[in-house]
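DM from R.C. (forwarded with permission)

"hey, sorry to bug you on a friday — could you get me a structure for this? deadline for the figure draft is monday and I only need the backbone to look sensible"
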Amino acid sequence: MRYAQGGGLTDAGRAARERVRLQAVERFERGEKSKEIATALRVSERSVERWRKSWRERGEGGVRSKGSPGRPRLGPAQMERLERELERGPLAHGWPDQRWTLARIKALIGRLFHVSYTIEGTWLLLKRHGWSWQQPARRAIERDDDAVELWKKEVWPQVKDRRRPGVRGSPSRTRPGSR
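My reply, with the result:
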């Protein structure tokens, strides 16, 4: 059975699993076979073989729990540095335009702090620290808003299509309605 990251277990559950692994170590030292250990401890033979390999390579410490992996967190000093780097802009970090995307910020965090966030995790981190989502307005630099408003008020009403009077018709394309 596969477990979610962290094993999906509480600290007590992780401790219980570690006790089982340590019992397996005792049996390794007595020279018991993997199949016997798996049956006695009610685990898969494959797990026992994996533990035995770790035990041979690193001793008892190889089968001990590494603890909950937890989520990556940036400390206050790291967050301040990240904010300074974000204020410098994407161009300063090698991206060709002036847009920060979550993927770019995720990559920047990885480069600066050697911590891997997901895209969603990056968004939650930024949101927690008061950053907001913004979309740049796509407008031409030459745009004249006053001229646009004038055109909407004076020219558009003259140009827009007047409704044609209703005519009896047929929904058929090949047989037009009679007048």
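R.C.: lifesaver. The CA atoms of residues 36 and 45 lie 9 Å apart.
me: no worries. Residues 11-30 form the longest helix (20 residues).
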